[in-house]
Write a structure and sequence with these properties.
Elements: E1 4-13, E2 16-26, E3 31-35, H1 42-49, E4 57-62, E5 65-66, H2 72-77, E6 80-82, H3 95-101, H4 119-138, H5 154-166, E7 172-176, H6 184-199, E8 203-207, H7 211-217, E9 220-225, E10 228-233, H8 235-239, H9 242-249
Parallel strand pairs: 3-8, 3-9, 6-7, 7-8
Antiparallel strand pairs: 1-2, 1-4, 4-5, 9-10
This protein binds adenosine-5'-triphosphate.
Adenosine-5'-triphosphate binds near residues 13, 16, 36, 41 and 42.
Protein name: ABC transporter ATP-binding protein
Pfam family, one: BCA_ABC_TP_C
GO molecular function, one term: ATP binding
Length: about 250
């Protein structure tokens, strides 16, 4: 059974059909790239799947369960998390605090003075701190841990964003343009991190415009056009497909 399946997804904005009967599925453990010309519906696909917007038709199935229209918080609890094209960290907070804050629940952190926290709350807070520090180190952001996130470069922000979503311990990770605005060195670094997560068993779906990096990274490519599936398959076959070439030439 697929880990993620969308069936006949439809999303309209006014008269525009951003998704027009899209059906795509992703198996557990896959690393899949999603490409397509501007406006093809890639972000809307992620938005519908991750509960950011509700589709007007069709279904989203997660591990066989119908999760259509479920909230992003509820989906994150089941293990699906996503990043956004524009990163969402708080610029006036340090890198370390941004990662810590991403943890799904930190009981008592903001509501109770330290004195009244139970031992289990303190244990949980300690666990969050250690996990966050571990991720900051793994992503080689430790030298920036106490800097404000606003001072990071575009590529460093993308790394921070990855560290933040990993705090939620996902089994399905949706990445929206993780290489946009990133220099070649950090692009290789981020691609390596994504590959390593997938090697450890995480299912990953990546939207990306930068086709060279994407095709080197993924096992399978899905190409959208005008809100539906144009072609899918292994990268080499997809990129030499006449329909794909035409879709990109026509951009
Ligand atoms: N919130 C919205 N309101 C109105 N129209 C929208 C909205 N979100 C997306 N659209 C439209 O839906 C279509 C698909 O947009 P979407 O962002 O999903 O495409 P995309 O493939 O991700 O494009 P890009 O590569 O440019 O990011 C576009 O025509 C876009 O203008």
């Amino acid at each position: 059974m697929s880990l993620l399946a969308v069936e006949n997804l439809v999303k309209t904005f006014g008269g525009l059909r951003a998704l027009d009967g899209l059906s795509v599925s992703v198996d557990r453990g896959e690393l899949v790239g999603v490409m397509g010309p501007n406006g093809a519906g890639k972000s809307t696909f992620f938005n519908c799947v991750s509960g950011v917007v509700s589709p007007d038709g069709g279904r989203v199935l997660l591990d066989g369960a119908d999760v259509t229209g479920d909230s992003p918080e509820s989906l994150a609890r089941t293990g699906m998390v996503r990043t956004f094209q524009h990163t969402r960290e708080l610029e006036t907070m340090t890198v370390r605090d941004n990662v810590r804050l991403a943890a799904s629940d930190q009981p008592g952190e903001r509501t109770l003075p330290a004195l009244f926290r139970t031992e289990s709350m303190r244990d949980r807070e300690q666990e969050v701190r250690e996990r966050a520090d571990g991720l900051v180190e793994t992503f080689e952001l430790d030298h920036l841990a106490d800097e404000y996130s606003g001072s990071l470069s575009g590529g460093q922000r993308k790394l921070l964003e990855l560290a933040r979503v990993l705090m939620l311990d996902p089994n399905l990770l949706l990445l929206d343009e993780p290489f946009a605005g990133v220099n070649p060195t950090l692009t290789r670094e981020i691609a390596g991190r994504i590959r390593a997560l997938n090697d450890e068993g995480m299912t990953v779906v990546v939207i990306e415009h930068e086709l060279e990096t994407l095709t080197e990274l993924v096992d399978r490519l899905v190409v959208l056009q005008q809100g539906s599936l144009l072609v899918e398959g292994d990268p080499e076959t997809v990129l030499s497909d006449e329909r794909v070439i035409e879709a990109y030439l026509g951009e």
